[in-house]
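Example record used in the benchmark description.
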Amino acid sequence: MHTKVLVLPSPYLIAPAPFYLDSRVILCSVLDEVTSAGQNSDLIQTVTDQILIEYCNLVVGEFYRQVIDSRFPSWKLHEELEPLILPEVSLWKSVFRMLENLSKHLLLTTYPALLLRELIKERELMVFIVTQSSETRRMKNYLALRQHQNRELQGCENPFDKEKSPNTWKIMDLAIKLANRDDDFRKKFYMPVVTARQKITAFMKKDKSRFIINGNMQRQGRKKEPIASKA
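Model output (structure tokens):
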């Protein structure tokens, strides 16, 4: 019996050698895509957009070390960045565990890693300590929205917009339906996602975190304060 082997070209060396074609290689491919300069070419026009990419890379690097290979050498965290990065990594891990279990329960035809990719791309459930938004919204309003979403998630309600974030809405709709009928899934897999997201929101509020609108960094409770202009 022959097993298919896939060689992934990777400029970041996430998957530098042949892997057996299984769930791990698909996850590696997704992480390569998330950190690819080509995939993020629209985000490298300003200094703040480059910060967004670097932030995502640090999250991916630590997620890779904790989930796939502890010896992964790239994007290592400085201890000063751990309070910023580790809560997001915890959310990624909780989400991925939930997706894996959701796939087993519902026999989904889509790999959990590909579902993770859709959630990352839509930037609703995940990646929002440092985030990008095209909307004119102050940090105070942004945090209020996240807190409202967290309360709805805790009550097993879907707070996401079906039109704006169809994949996030669909995935969470499946997760919530399963959580409502399977107490074990709700306690072990669904609620850890909610808790991790709540911790990030609490950290953002306490730390007066910033986020990006139209390439400009925003401060909590203040009007727009651009620190970089379009090139």
